[in-house]
Every structure is written in structure tokens, then in C-alpha cells.
Design the sequence.
């Protein structure tokens, strides 16, 4: 083993997660909006697969006071992590709403639901009426996603109810009015401007409630989209939401973000192959010359996309090498013929994801988006967290 080989420990691949980079990205996004606009952090799906309990406390230390997750289970885990780190006062919202039987846990753990429909709203109002204490909630209105959120009829009901000051509205205390942009990364799509117009009109009917529309892409779209709070997600982790299809000012915006993840894996074996030899399952790559093949210890069981076979590249000793053949459950095969044998021997590992092959490029080659790459990372790679208050490792 070479002296500079990453400390893989008992694993064959290593994910290095830079907490300082994530904090830097939050600060960068926070500076895009006015001082009076709050910048929250979306850490759902376990911090986009990177570890929300370790990501959130450094963000809180940097000034983030509001976090969004998807479910109550995620919120309870995050609440414990923030409280242990001394940030028990941070707000946590759940995007999936509150469901029957969850009310006690929401209250016990000081978690705020995002209400997505009239049924949830009325159920909360009934509880608030019985207790005599209005229950805090965010109101999510659909402005074009046709996914979660109050639909047109329910929005009309909300407007009428709040205009009339009904008993139902007195039992729920809205602390946020929000919607979600469907195509904020696509500068040619008119959906964002349409959603902005619809949300602005609705906000005018409920001016007393703080408003939030911008996700990562919306944060980059400028002040009209910022309202009282922005809610960046993927950009926190170093990926511009436009991915590899950036236009206009987006490349410069992407340069302001720091990549948060590096992925490395052991070279398990090297072998020679003759012209005509087939590589991997079903021989989808055929050697056209005498070659050297390195087998690298990562596969689709680790979260390395199977679609990257015969498409991706890795970095070995500062030089690029193509992935050849199909991605296996536990390994990939790389053509290292054009890299000096001594360089490969000295390296001992390949960098799968990093400066020379960034997340946007990997996602493009895999035919997907960076969000999916991150959230599909497996549990088998060792994880090393750098920065924050302290560095930590875990298998």
C-alpha cells in the first residue's frame, strides 16, 4: 500500500464529505438575497444522501436557523442531532405534512408541518380548537407542479376563510406561505415566471404570512423570487441545479459553489488483455489492442450507477482512464493502457467523483441528475466527514 493511499479501513471505497464546503455554499446562497430574507437549508433524504445529522449542526453554527426535511422520522432524527449540538432552537419543517397519529410527536419534538391540503388543515384546526392553542404550520400552495400543495379550489377556500376570519383559521397559526418552482434551473422555461406571478397574487391576499418560493434554482433567479425565505437544497452540496446543461450566467454561479463530495476506490487488481478479449458481463467492450485493465472496488451495490458502464471515466494518479465493460455489483473495470504502469502502481486507487469528473458530468453520463447520484449512494462505502467542528469517519 502506498503511503498516500486514502484510509479505506475495512471498505473498498471512500466518500469524503466536506462540511466546510457545504457551509461555504450556504453562505454563498445566503448572500444572494437581502439581509432580511432568511436562507433555510433543505436536508431531506438524509442530507441528499450525505448525512443530515452531521451536515446540519455546522450550518446552524454558520447562522442557518430553519431546516426542511420530508418526513416526521427525518425530522425527529434531525431534532436530536441539532439539540445535542446546542441548536435546539432551530426550526424544522416536514414537507410531507402531518398525518393521523403523528400529532403528539410533532408537539413533543417541536416540529412544524407543511400543510399540503385542506384535510390536514382542518384536522389541525380541530386539535387547535380543542386545546385552545393555535397550532403553527406552513401552508403549501400548488402553483404549477400538480404534486403537493393546496389545489386551486383549496386555495380559493383559504382566501375566503382568512378574509372572513373564520373559527377554523383562528385555530391554525400559519408561519409560512410557500410554493415550489418546477423548472427554476431552465432559463428558457416560462413556468418560473408564471409561478412567480401566481404566487405573488396569492401572497397579496395573505400579506401577514411570511412567504417562500425559491429553491436552489430560484435563489439564483434573483430578488423577485426570494420573498421572506429561500430554501436551497442541491446547491448546498455543490451542484448547480442546471447540472451539465448550464447557460447564461449559470456557469459563473456554479463556480461560486464548492463541491462537497469526493469518491475514491481501491484498485483491486490489474491484468493484461489481448486484442479481441471481451470485458465484463456479456462482453459489451471488446479490446482492440493489447491492453491493461484495472479492476476497481466499487459497483452498483455501492451506489455507482450501472448506466455508467462504457461511459464514465476515473482519475488515477492525475490521469484520466475510461470505464470499460458493464458495471458489476462490486466492481468496475478501467482501461489503464495509456497510463504508465508505475503511475497506476503508485496510485493504488481511482477517484470516481471529484475535480476531474464532477457530479454534473457523472450524472450526465449516467443519464440522470446529480440529485439521484447523491441520494442513491450506498451504505457500503466508508464515509469521512471533513471540516465542521471536528472530522469524523464511519463505515
Sequence:
Amino acid at each position: 500500500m502506498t503511503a498516500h493511499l486514502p484510509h479505506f479501513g475495512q471498505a473498498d471505497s471512500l466518500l469524503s464529505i466536506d462540511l466546510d464546503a457545504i457551509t461555504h455554499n450556504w453562505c454563498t446562497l445566503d448572500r444572494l438575497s437581502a439581509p432580511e430574507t432568511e436562507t433555510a437549508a433543505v436536508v431531506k433524504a438524509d442530507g441528499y444522501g450525505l448525512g443530515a445529522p452531521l451536515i446540519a449542526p455546522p450550518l446552524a453554527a454558520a447562522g442557518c436557523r430553519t431546516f426542511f426535511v420530508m418526513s416526521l422520522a427525518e425530522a425527529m432524527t434531525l431534532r436530536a442531532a441539532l439539540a445535542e449540538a446546542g441548536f435546539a432552537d432551530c426550526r424544522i419543517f416536514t414537507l410531507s405534512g402531518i398525518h393521523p397519529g403523528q400529532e403528539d410527536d410533532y408537539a413533543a419534538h417541536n416540529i412544524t408541518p407543511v400543510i399540503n391540503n385542506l384535510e390536514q388543515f382542518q384536522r389541525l384546526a380541530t386539535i387547535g380548537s380543542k386545546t385552545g392553542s393555535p397550532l403553527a404550520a406552513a401552508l403549501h400552495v400548488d402553483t404549477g407542479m400538480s404534486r403537493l400543495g393546496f389545489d386551486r379550489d383549496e386555495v380559493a377556500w383559504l382566501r375566503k376563510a382568512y378574509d372572513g376570519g373564520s373559527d377554523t383559521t383562528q385555530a391554525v397559526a400559519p408561519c409560512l406561505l410557500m410554493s415550489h418552482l418546477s423548472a427554476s434551473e431552465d432559463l428558457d422555461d416560462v413556468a418560473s415566471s408564471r409561478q412567480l406571478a401566481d404566487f405573488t397574487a396569492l401572497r397579496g391576499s395573505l400579506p401577514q404570512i411570511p412567504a417562500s418560493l425559491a429553491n436552489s434554482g430560484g435563489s439564483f433567479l434573483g430578488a423577485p423570487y426570494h420573498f421572506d425565505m429561500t430554501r436551497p437544497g442541491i446547491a448546498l452540496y455543490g451542484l448547480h441545479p442546471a447540472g451539465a446543461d448550464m447557460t447564461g450566467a449559470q456557469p459563473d454561479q456554479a463556480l461560486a459553489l464548492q463541491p462537497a463530495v469526493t469518491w475514491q476506490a481501491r484498485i483491486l487488481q490489474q491484468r493484461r488483455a489481448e486484442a479481441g478479449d471481451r470485458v465484463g458481463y456479456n462482453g459489451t467492450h471488446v479490446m482492440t489492442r493489447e491492453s491493461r485493465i484495472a479492476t476497481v472496488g466499487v459497483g452498483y451495490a455501492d451506489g455507482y450507477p450501472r448506466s455508467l458502464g462504457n461511459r464514465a471515466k476515473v482519475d488515477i494518479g492525475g490521469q484520466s482512464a475510461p470505464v470499460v465493460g458493464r458495471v458489476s455489483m462490486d466492481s468496475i473495470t478501467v482501461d489503464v493502457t495509456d497510463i504508465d504502469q508505475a503511475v497506476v502502481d503508485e496510485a493504488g486507487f481511482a477517484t470516481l467523483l471529484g475535480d476531474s469528473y464532477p457530479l454534473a458530468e457523472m450524472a450526465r453520463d449516467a443519464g440522470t441528475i446529480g440529485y439521484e447520484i447523491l441520494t442513491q449512494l450506498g451504505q457500503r462505502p466508508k464515509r469521512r466527514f471533513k471540516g465542521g467542528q471536528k472530522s469524523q469517519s464511519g463505515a
